[in-house]
Amino acid sequence: MIKKVITRAQSNWTKAEGPHHHIVISSRIRLARNLMKLGMPVFQKESDGFSVLQKVKNAVETISCEGKEKLYFYQLQEIPHLERQILLEKHLISPEHCEEGVNKGLIISEDEVISIMINEEDHLRMQAFFPGLQLDKAWELANQLDDALENELEFAFDSKKGYLTACPTNVGTGLRASVMLHLPALSLTKQVGRVLSSLGQLGFTARGLYGEGTEATGNLYQLSNQITLGQTEMDIIQNLTTLALQIVEKEESTRNWLLKENPLRIKDRVGRAYGILQNAAILTSQEALNYLSDVRMGVDMGLLKGLLEQDNLSELMVLAQPAFIQKYMGKIMDAQERDEVRARLFNKKFQKGGKYNVFQIHTTRAACSFFGWRRS
Amino acid sequence: MQCERCQKRLANVHVTQYINGQKAEKHLCEQCAQEEKIKIEIPNFPIYNLNDLLGAFFNQPFIAKEEVREDVCPNCKISYGKIVHLGRMGCSECYQHFSTYLEPALRKMHGATIHRGKIPRRMGTSFRINRELSDLKHKLRQAIEKEEYEKAAEYRDSIKELEGKNKPRAGVE
Q1: Mean pLDDT, rounded, for B107-123
Q2: How does pLDDT run across A117-169, given as a tens digit for each residue?
Q3: Fewer CB in a 10 Å sphere around the end CB: N or C, chain A?
Q4: Which of A143, A151, A167 is closest, CB to CB, to B87?
Q5: Which residues of chain B are within 8 Å of residue A81 when distances are taken between CB atoms?
Q6: pTM of the entire predicted model
Q7: Which one of B45, B93, B110 has the shortest CB-CB distance to A172?
Q8: Domains of chain A, CATH where assigned
Q9: Is the ipTM here above 0.85?
Q10: Cβ-based burial of A31 (10 A; exposed 0-12, middle 13-18, buried ≥19)
């Protein structure tokens, strides 16, 4: 099953679905849970780690039998590094979980909506991932999964402090709700810093595309809650939803203002980005993401009618990533080679209007099918 | 500046390397840089540096005391000093054992010390009712403060009803 996941750029969150999906790319709920008394990963004895892995695996196998979406278990060591990196690029695991380590595990559903990291920072980190602004839906699913697992596992819970986590910044609900926002107009008008800096006072924080310590490429920002203790899950989700809606409104009105004040500039910017993606011979992933951002804004504004559909823009974001592109070509490449191949790939996509819906890799035929580029 | 490798073209790739604390600079043209396979990439941000920041949260004045630093969790045998150093707990029991040191840190991080969210089902009915009671009492106080007496009366009735339910069970669980 994992082969499917790492050979397609598509994921549940890349779909152009859900409320406000033109600005809110995706919504994610993550719950941190730990098993009682066993050492937490940072200080873990290997025997404790193994026991956590086995217990979670058994629990998931039991609940998987009770109908619902089937969940697949993998020991992370079984997955080669390049493929782990693809999982990271698709936001299914964290940068920490991508690193080498014993007793690390991954549980994932075929549609990539659910993924559970085992022995990351906490024993379990379960994630539900949806396109658009659907935090409530993601919470509903994560909550159900948590209920089901709770029947099989004894999660560490304290009547006062709530769910006990490795890091005290997560204690209480263990909940991290986050939305990925695409804010080109706010960035262009230099308002984004001001909007996002006010988040801290409200108990929320903004980060770059791949979480802690990464920068904001392609005008993409991840907003998430910082406070996990003293608020209910619904409070956190509702507050973040309201906040996201406000930012969506600001972004939209700024876009309208830009279109009204300076339509030529915007058209020029979008057209240039399109032209570069269509014709560049060297393209870094950062550049690709930045131009994709302009193109996406153009599509949203109706400036690229007939040229490009919104559907696969998020998929193109995955396709631009270094590990995915290497898997796609079926070989390890250095940065320069990747930039060249990336440029050729994007050229093809944009010459045909980017109208391919699914980017499925055929590893064995990767190189030849690349030049022929037939639609599956 | 000329490329120091081919001495022909203009050097526009500048590489600074630190090897064992020694600074070494290279000035190459694009072509030579390519031939030397110099990757022009941003190095990965060391994620674990953030732990140092987190450690500051735990860093209460009493951590200077040796007996606090060497206080060890009876379950996982990890000392509080180590926990502060890495910003991570050793096991679930650490929260109980180091409770007094942790409270102020939690208050700083979250502005609260009491969990109000989801409760696992195994916590039992009496715990759930107590939680509901404390929530209702909180709402009642707020309603009175806002002079919403109709709402307050509703909350008061619900509290009475719940308290009635809780009493016969209290001894059982």
Answers
A1: 88
A2: 999 999 999 999 999 999 999 999 999 999 999 999 999 999 899 999 999 99
A3: C
A4: A167
A5: none
A6: 0.80
A7: B110
A8: 2-6+9-253 (3.30.590.10), 263-371 (no CATH)
A9: no
A10: buried
